[in-house]
Request: fold
Amino acid sequence: MDAFTRSLALMRRGMGRGRGLALSVALLLTGATAPVWADETCMSPFMPKITGQEDYVYVWTLGVDGMGDGSDKLVTVDVRPGSATYGQVIASASVGGRNEAHHGGLTDDRRYFWTSGLDTSRIFIFDVHTDPAHPKLDRTIDDFVQATGGVVGPHGAYALPGRMLMSGLSNAKDEGGRTALVEYTNDGRFLATHWMPTAEDPRGATVEGVADGYGYDQRVLPRKNVMLTSSFTGKANYMRDLGEVIKDPEAMKRFGQTVVLWDFHARQPKKVFNVPGAPLEIRWAWGPEHNHAFTTTALTSKIWLIYEDKDGEWKAKAVADIGNPSDIPLPVDISLSADDATLFVDTFMDGKVRVYDVRDPHSPKLILEKSIGRQVNMVSQSWDGKRVYFTTSLLANWDKKGADNDQFIKGYDWNGTELTERFAIDFTEKKLGRPHIMRFGAASLYTN
Amino acid sequence: MRSSVMLLAGLAWLTLALTVAAAADSGHSHGGGAPVAPPRPSGFDYDPPKPGTYQLPPLAVAADGVALDETGAVRHLSELMGDGITVLSFIYTRCGDICPFGTQLMRDLHEATAEDPELAAGLRLITMSFDPDHDTPEVMAEEAKAFRDDGGRGEKGADWPFLTARDKGELGEILTAYDQRVLTSVNPDGPLAHQLRVYLIDREHRIRNIYSLDFLDPRLVLADIRTLRMEPRRQAAVR
Reply:
């Protein structure tokens, strides 16, 4: 067990203590009170989909001091088969500074790519429709914290008709994990802040065990009028060196342990599920009769299923371990195929992807385990399920050090049983930075 | 290597195709007096939130613009909105896939207002074509006859003009103002790729919600309309 793995093992044990404390606090204060990121198949249902071959992969990339211009940037990779520049970087649009580039999302018309910085709380909006091969920074939102009433760390950007729904990760008061959802119009005008339910203010939600008020991902199932949100940790932790965090017992108590079910249209929380271990990405099934979603917990290494039972009751339960949880593989991004049959799960620590058959969502079955690199974070698959892309960076201060600090994008073909590598781009060698979230582009989106 | 792009909201439209058809066949029989409550369409498996229990923040100003109604008369959007709550839908009549869902929603709302005179008095429905080369006032009159005037509702429902543009320049200004995306075609008779959007506009001419295919549930739109009706009127309109 190397130092990093040992650190994560300590983190996990600390998580358990934190959960116990938080649960005690919740019971004390509430008594018996009431009540997304990375690929074509994980896109908001409210936008056009690229159902065939994507032309470009846009990679929101963290700048690294002393590497190239040192700034965060949107990197465009050509993935058109037969192109003279297939598998190569063909454009890079720098934002002129480092902001802890992390997640983002396309607007409902796919004309703009909203990307955010967890450190500076700035939002960068790229025009990807005027010249899809060469996105340009169109505008920047600099007053996120002030406009939202103290939300910090804009994270995922989720398209709604004519607007964007952003999740925060933190708050300006204590830089802990309590945070909110935030809405903007597509042109960047602030609309509303919806704070996550807490033990002190559950906002009418039924609390299963604890209401920590944390946030991370947000995903909507429109035909049921429900939304799910998950929970990570605040700025005090995510901007800190991981080694320091895990040595700080108080910091270790401040990781998310909830998934919240919302009345989407009313933006009102209905039920707070207890999902310990920092549940991160959420993926709703696409099938018209499939009333379930998956998430994975980073620190406890489990696949969780959130589902509606035959009586119409929404429930959450752990349905599988990911690797050996005691090894702390640290599951990060996930991707559910468009036919709801397979779930890709990346684990950061061992650099692997695990593919599960989830046709029975209550009983996932491992069908492939493959090493992608020495670390891996994001996974994006095409709508037709034939191509899968991976990137590596988690957070600037959490990525591995030295030779283990792989920073790449790799493209694979997927035939249902095997992944075959088609290209790889070393972002360190190219002096680009740390590649994070990916989104797909296609010129045909903008022509009739 | 041309990408295949689905200009629809995921797979949801497939469900909606069945859903809206089911809603159209439901008959929408309602008793007098009580607020009209359309039955639950099969593809929308929830109960809409209670009107007035949630917020609909203003998204943008609902722009004015010049159009022709189905008689060929020049009309201004702001005049048609008047002091009522408006539901505005952009379509083109040659559209064989998604536009009919928007028009079916308008028809459902019209049916609801036909049985609720108070609701009808405060609601305006506007269907506007973005294909003036084909959708002349005469064509829009036929569209109105098919969707609005059948079923014996006659004058009982909310006002529901079917508009088209006087020229491409004026149309472009309206589409830009509403951020209604329509891709031009090199073939003058080809399809017009677009995103279906239906707009809810308040009495002060502000856009308060935008519905895509996943939200074309008349119960949801009626809940939003009733939420706006519960709001106090503002002293000064923001236009």
Q: What stands out?
A: Chain B is about 30% helix and 15% strand. The domain at 58-229 of chain B is CATH 3.40.30.10 (Glutaredoxin). The helical segments of chain B are 12-25, 77-81, 99-114, 117-121, 137-147, 168-177, 218-229.
